[in-house]
């Protein structure tokens, strides 16, 4: 049995639960295994991918297991003539572990039938998907979003190029100066992304335009606003010829950042802000679809259609499943709400997985079978249905906290609004029922805060010292208040106190998932003392 997992910290838990016998990893993870060897009781075989040289000393430490390089396994395959044992649709294809953003990871049993259902459904949505397309794969395959996407590409005969988030563009961190990034070499036509990466592209472009200033900025702003008016229907005129002019003068260099050939972008993993979606529409000139799904639904639930120019919605249900809303009275969301029905999003149909491996209690809590034998998964997300049948995700049950005086704070909604501040790289809002206000932990953008410090004549030894500077804290807090007011947040939703943290939150640090979603419990545990100080 094999399983997908999100990182070395989870190996021992996954291995213990699944009794996995074979582990495939890269050279970097291989070096970490001897330190946890006592916890890997069922492991027998290790296959490592030679992405970097492995020294003899490391291999000598692997004597507990049969250790082979991927090249050696390929050679074994060439000389082996064992017939394939074909699966049935109900057989488990993958045990994929959730990211553990709300506690210990759970092993979701995804069947071959689930995979086929999602793949077939998505192939009906993306127009003209086929052998002429090129797809850039850079998200972890241990994430259901990427697994589903690559399966769709393989089924449709699309070429796949493998890259990484750190080598994507010519200016990425791991790209040697003067050499090309993945998108420049591959020139993909199709890409998927998580909101955090599209937000970074948007911020980088606006920053560059702002730095150039003058005529460049005026032209960009004018062209941007003209295209925005055309897309949103408030101005049509002779748009096509004018757009060609702006595309060639203003937006062509921006498209070159992603290779210049992208025709469709699908975003998933978390809600995409309307501003970022519009930015990608205008600057890339391509549809940006939003997908909605979970590991438990094999990524399949809803998917916006390619010609839908609205923002903030995740589209209608995919052809492989059904979506309904169930009232959540306690949170104030009901299917009788006006102007749109609201409630917990519940997904049923062929993409719904078998449940959690060796965890019947949790399976029975969120998977339900109705009187027609339809299997439904209760997502914990709050949605509303638009009159045209499109779904919009507006909240999450676990992210709603009731304050001391009875007001409800939606942490995700507040964080989404505050992320529009150019000082914010990452933010987690925290609230508890014993206070009547919320607080926030902020990882500030190095560039933005250091530029402000330079312009303000602030002296500091290093970035950590700058994060403790009272004037810097005040500047960021004022920026958050401005973003909150622009989003029309209530006074109690605006963080009363904040703490600036110098170290970025990465999947390696265990504070965010591979899709860059917050791991609230882990962040709360790590910064417990700091949160207590903010509340006193």
Automatic annotation (TrEMBL):
Any one cellular-component term (Gene Ontology): endoplasmic reticulum
Biological classification of the source: Eukaryota, Viridiplantae, Streptophyta, Embryophyta, Tracheophyta
GO molecular function terms attached to this record: 4-coumarate-CoA ligase activity; long-chain fatty acid-CoA ligase activity; trans-cinnamate-CoA ligase activity
Domain of life, per lineage: Eukaryota
EC number(s) given by UniProt: 6.2.1.12
Organism of provenance: Panicum virgatum
Family annotation (SUPFAM superfamilies): Acetyl-CoA synthetase-like
InterPro entries from the UniProt entry: AMP-bd_C_sf, AMP-binding_CS, AMP-dep_synth/lig_dom, ANL_N_sf
Enzyme class: ligase
Cofactors named for this entry: Mg(2+)
Entry-linked PROSITE patterns: AMP_BINDING
Reactions the enzyme catalyzes: (E)-4-coumarate + ATP + H(+) = (E)-4-coumaroyl-AMP + diphosphate; a long-chain fatty acid + ATP + CoA = a long-chain fatty acyl-CoA + AMP + diphosphate; (E)-4-coumaroyl-AMP + CoA = (E)-4-coumaroyl-CoA + AMP + H(+); (E)-4-coumarate + ATP + CoA = (E)-4-coumaroyl-CoA + AMP + diphosphate
Pfam families reported in the protein's UniProt record: AMP-binding (PF00501)
PANTHER family with a match to the protein in the record: LONG CHAIN ACYL-COA SYNTHETASE 8, LONG-CHAIN-FATTY-ACID--COA LIGASE
GO terms (BP aspect): phenylpropanoid metabolic process
Protein name in UniProt: 4-coumarate--CoA ligase
AMP-dependent synthetase/ligase domain residues: 17-357
Residue ranges the record marks as coiled coil: none
């Amino acid at each position: 049995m094999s399983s997908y997992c999100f990182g070395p910290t989870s190996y021992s838990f996954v291995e213990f639960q699944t009794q996995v016998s074979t582990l495939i990893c890269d050279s970097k993870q291989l070096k970490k295994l001897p330190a946890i060897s006592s916890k890997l009781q069922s492991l027998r075989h290790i296959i490592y991918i030679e992405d970097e040289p492995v020294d003899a000393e490391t291999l000598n430490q692997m004597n507990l297991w049969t250790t082979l390089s991927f090249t050696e396994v390929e050679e074994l395959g060439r000389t082996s003539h064992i017939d394939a044992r074909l699966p049935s649709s109900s057989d488990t294809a993958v045990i994929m572990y959730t990211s553990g953003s709300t506690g210990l990871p759970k092993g979701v049993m995804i069947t071959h039938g689930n995979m086929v259902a999602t793949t077939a459904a998505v192939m009906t949505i993306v127009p003209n998907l086929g052998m002429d397309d090129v797809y850039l794969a850079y998200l972890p395959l241990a994430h259901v979003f990427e697994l589903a996407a690559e399966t769709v590409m393989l089924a449709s005969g699309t070429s796949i190029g493998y890259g990484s988030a750190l080598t994507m563009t010519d200016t990425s961190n791991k790209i040697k100066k003067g050499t090309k990034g993945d998108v420049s070499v591959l020139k993909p036509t199709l890409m998927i992304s998580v909101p955090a990466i599209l937000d970074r592209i948007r911020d980088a472009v606006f920053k560059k335009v702002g730095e150039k200033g003058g005529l460049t900025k005026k032209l960009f702003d004018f062209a941007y606003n003209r295209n925005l008016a055309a897309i949103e229907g408030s101005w049509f005129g002779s748009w096509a010829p004018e757009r060609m002019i702006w595309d060639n003068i203003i937006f062509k260099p921006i498209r070159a950042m992603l290779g210049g050939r992208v025709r469709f972008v699908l975003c998933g993993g978390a809600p995409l802000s309307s501003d970022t979606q519009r930015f990608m529409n205008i600057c890339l000139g391509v549809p940006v679809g939003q997908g909605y799904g979970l590991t438990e639904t094999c990524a399949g639930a809803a998917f916006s259609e390619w010609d839908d120019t609205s923002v903030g919605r995740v589209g209608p249900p995919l052809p492989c499943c059904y979506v309904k809303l169930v009232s959540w009275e306690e949170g104030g969301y009901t299917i009788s709400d006006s102007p749109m029905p609201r409630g917990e999003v519940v997904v049923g149909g062929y993409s719904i997985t078998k449940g959690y491996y060796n965890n019947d209690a949790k399976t029975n809590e969120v998977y339900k079978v109705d009187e027609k034998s339809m299997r439904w998964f209760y997502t914990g997300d709050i949605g509303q249905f638009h009159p045209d049948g499109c779904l919009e995700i507006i909240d999450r049950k676990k992210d709603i906290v009731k304050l001391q005086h009875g007001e409800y704070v939606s942490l995700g909604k507040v964080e989404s609004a505050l992320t529009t501040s150019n000082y914010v790289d990452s933010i987690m809002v925290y609230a508890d029922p014993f206070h009547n206000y919320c607080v926030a932990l902020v990882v500030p953008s190095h560039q933005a805060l250091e530029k402000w410090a330079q312009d303000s004549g602030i002296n500091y030894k290093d970035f950590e010292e700058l994060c403790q500077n009272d004037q810097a804290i005040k500047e960021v807090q004022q920026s958050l208040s401005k973003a909150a007011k622009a989003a029309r947040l209530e006074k109690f939703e605006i963080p009363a106190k904040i703490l600036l943290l110098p170290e970025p939150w990465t999947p390696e640090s265990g504070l965010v998932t591979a899709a860059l979603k917050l791991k609230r419990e882990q962040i709360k545990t790590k910064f417990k003392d700091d949160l207590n100080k903010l509340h006193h």
